[in-house]
Amino acid sequence: MSERTDALARDGVLLARAASGFALPVIDVTHPRFAVPDDDASVGALRRAFMENERGHARAPRFLMRWIIASAARKSRFLQAVFNPGATFLDGITTYAMKLGEANLLPPFDGEVDRSFARSPHVTCLRLRMQQTAALIADAAARELSEMPGRPLHLVDIAGGPAMDAVNALIFLARSAPELLGPVRIVVLDPDESGPAFGAAALRELAQPGRSLHGLDVSMQRIAYDWAATAPLDDCVAAATASGAVIVASSEGGLFEYGSDEAIVRNLTSLHAAGRGARAVIGSVTSGDEHRRRMVAESSVKVIPRGLDGFAPLAARAGYAIARSRPAIVSDQVELVAVRSEGE
């Protein structure tokens, strides 16, 4: 075992194995190694660091920045993924590894350039994004279960990768309100197998005796999914409602950031199911400010910086309204609640 792996073990950090064979720490945002400060002062400081980083990039000649990035990318799996001209989105495992934090990186993501990248304000924003999403999921699930504790809970995660937003929501609930939890099913709708496979391995580690999810009836299922064709989601929602389950859906760094307007409306309509489906949907919405738009324009990763003002009308078309949001500079994490029409 490496010195870093030994340190993680001493701090009680769990490891799970990815399909490729390497082991990665299991993110638990209630653990000091993974928690990101989310108070107003800390978020303000992160915003200032982010803007200073952006100003530094803007001052450098564009040709020089391209050369620097190309040179660094040869030594960094993170930069290879972010600036790969052929990639329009980040794969689930690489995105997950970025959220580990510099001190928790293990091979093959622990090169010097990778560690430097992991320290950047932008990556800290991604870590905060997941933490905020998990907290919103937990709050919504607790609210929905409060009237009928022990009712089955289905956490539907669209483009969820390892679904660590849903897994961490369960960690929150297991710590704060275990009496609410009955059978829990995490359903990951994702075209990729490797991310959900790692999430399932992480869930198994967390369920071992003496660990945070031990004793809970929790399972994870991955369904191959393309958000342009919602039939699998329709079936998933129908099965959950038929079983009497509470449905809380989420998509962190997924549908609301990369999806077209029509795809967002179509998926939210499926989740709404004419008022019978998910009462709450949590997700991240890419910021629409000028700095974020410039970053998107310079990257091959094509999120859509529509901002809350551009997103809210799409949610309304599907029967949802934004109940609250939490900022993480590069995105806003939103909780949507179903709005029932007079005929429902």
Description:
There is one protein chain. The protein is α/β, with parallel strands linked by helices. It has two domains: 3-125, no CATH class; 128-338, Vaccinia Virus protein VP39 (Rossmann fold). The chain has helices at residues 3-10, 40-59, 62-73, 77-82, 92-98, 112-118, 121-145, 164-176, 194-206, 231-242, 255-258, 261-272, 290-298, 307-317; strands spanning 15-17, 23-25, 153-158, 184-189, 218-223, 246-251, 280-286, 320-327, 331-338. The strands form two sheets. The protein has a seven-stranded mixed beta sheet, with helices on both faces. The protein has a two-stranded antiparallel ribbon with strand order 1-2. Helix 8 links the parallel strand 3 and strand 4 (184-189). It is globular, with a radius of gyration of 20 Å. The protein starts with a helix and ends in a 6-residue tail after the last strand. Mean pLDDT is 88; it is low at 67-73.
